[in-house]
User: What shape does this take?
Amino acid sequence: YGVSFPMAAKISVKGDDTAPIYKWLCNKTENGVLDAEIKWNFNKFLLDEHGKIITKFDSQFTPMSEELTSKL
Assistant: This one.
C-alpha cells in the first residue's frame, strides 16, 4: 500500500473463517451484550476499560461524530 506505518494482517469478519475477535464481538452468546452484523467497512465497537461492549456504530458514523464521542 505504500505506507510507512505498521499494518495489521487482513482478517475475515464474516463467513466460515471469521476471526475469533469478530466471533466474540458479533455474538451475544459470546460477549453477553449484543448481536452485531458487519454490513460494510469501518464499523466501530466501543468497549469499556474492562473489555465489555458498550455499543456498536455502523460505518456511516464518523469517529468524531457526536453520537460516538458522547459515549466516551
Notes: The mean pLDDT is 93. Helices lie at 20-26, 28-31, 66-69. The first strand starts at residue 44 and ends at 47.
